[in-house]
Amino acid sequence: MISLLLILVAAISYGIGMVSGPRYIYAHMPRRVRRSGGRCTIGYTLFARRFGLKWAIAAAAFDAVKSAVAAVLGLLLPVIGTLFAGFCVMLGDMFPFNRAFRGGKGVLCLMTALWIADWRIGVFSSIVFIVVVTMSRYVSLASLSACLAGAVAAWIFVETEQLKAASGLVVLFAFFAAAWRHRGSIARLASGSEEKMIWGRAPEDKLREDTFV
């Protein structure tokens, strides 16, 4: 019974994750806004640069809600079901099979699940994100730091030793998945060519066309 429920939660969470917030918001924007910003992009940073901060916030809110739905669904499973569902919705967001496995970065999906699993884990990872992005202005670095912080926090705050290991491993796997999706950003960070966060819209020459989908 547990195995069947595990498969069901994984499949539904993955399916929920496939629904992209930026793509959904882009499809429901006024036509004039779409024309002024151009083509859709999955990343929130580039989405904000193209269409403005309020539309990026709307896209992020959509992804947060979908992730919350999946995480709550994970409560049907014992022990670390919420984190497992969060990991699956993250995979759906990052590797949607209906878009040739080319999706978003999935970090917000994981962060939402961390908050629902244990608010202390959510606070810890969110603080790390805020501190890193404020000091460095690199969203990619802050996102990866927050994922890694989530794995550490899961090990710290989960009560029993057995659950510490299981929870930490789930979030650690999520970190490795996020690192794979951020591999381009990691290479740019290493070479010093990664772009820093820019509020509002950026000039056309600041937009990397290879990130569009």
Task: Please describe what this structure looks like.
The chain has 213 residues and is mainly alpha-helical. It has 11 helices and no strands.
Task: Summarize this structure briefly.
This protein has 213 residues and is an all-alpha fold.
- By secondary-structure content and strand pairing, the structural class works out as mainly alpha
Helix content: over 70%
C-alpha Rg (nearest Å): 17 Å
Order of helices and strands: HHHHHHHHHHH
Binned strand content: under 5%
Taking the alpha carbons of the first and last residues, their distance comes to 39 Å
Overall geometric form: globular
Q: Mean pLDDT, nearest integer?
A: 86
**Unreliable stretches, pLDDT < 50, 5 or more residues?**
200-213
Find the count of extended strands (DSSP E, 2+ residues): 0
Biggest pleated sheet: none
Given the structure, what is the number of helices? Answer: 11
Labels describing this entry:
213 residues; mainly alpha; globular
Layout of secondary structure:
Layout: H1 2-17, H2 21-27, H3 31-37, H4 44-51, H5 53-73, H6 81-94, H7 107-117, H8 119-136, H9 139-157, H10 161-181, H11 183-191
